Amino acid sequence: MNQPQRRTHRIHYELKHRPVHVVRIEPQGSQFIRIVFGGEALYDFCSRGFDDHIKFIFQDVDSSETLMRDYTPRHFDPERQELSIEFALHGEGSACRWAQQARPGQTATIAGPRGSLLIAGDYDWYLLAGDATALPAIRRCVEELPTNSRIRVMLQMPEDYSADEWQAHPHIDLHLQHTDSALLEQLQTLPLPEGIGFVWAAGEKNSMAQIRKLIRQQTPFLSPNTRIAAYWRKGCPCFHEELQE
């Protein structure tokens, strides 16, 4: 098969640190909480890529130590100057605790994004895979792609996760697993659609390294149109790495 032409390109932004405050809090079921931030410093905020990441800088609720974590800008309203971030309520992490106790008026700082990777909207199909940490980016991608896009979503989520949110997207080919090994096995056995596609995956580093290896072995012709990232690593609370060639 001929090598497909890369249809992505990156744009860069000036790195800025922006003081923000909590405007409102919007629970998103048992797995996530969406916090909407506002502030005059957001007047020129820009995020054009669905998997952009920003540094969320906050004070630990126990020690008051200044901490920093990576998050996806879920939505930005330029008219209201409001930025939404979805926090996964998946454990005892410092950012999780901060989000659970957040109240309107509480302050934090947003840094970035440094840039965006823009993805063509006319691929024959899209494969989006990952665990709970990837879900905000996957949701944003589905919302921003053309409505006639052929999209397969493959998720590794806890057993109590409800897939009801996907009922609003009947064109999505959804596959739900509860372990990283089950997700990898399904990726190995489920044939990809015909045509030239775009593959995106994010999650725990070791799991993503296995997915990257699988894609390179089984479909090397897709390498130019593949983006895989480690959003976290076991034992390392602040981690983000692109697993590229």
From TrEMBL:
Residues 15-120 form the FAD-binding FR-type domain. SUPFAM superfamilies: Riboflavin synthase domain-like (SSF63380). GO terms for molecular function: oxidoreductase activity. Belongs to the SIP oxidoreductase family. This is NADPH-dependent ferric siderophore reductase, contains FAD-binding and SIP domains. It comes from Marinobacterium iners DSM 11526. The lineage of its organism: Bacteria, Pseudomonadati, Pseudomonadota, Gammaproteobacteria, Oceanospirillales.
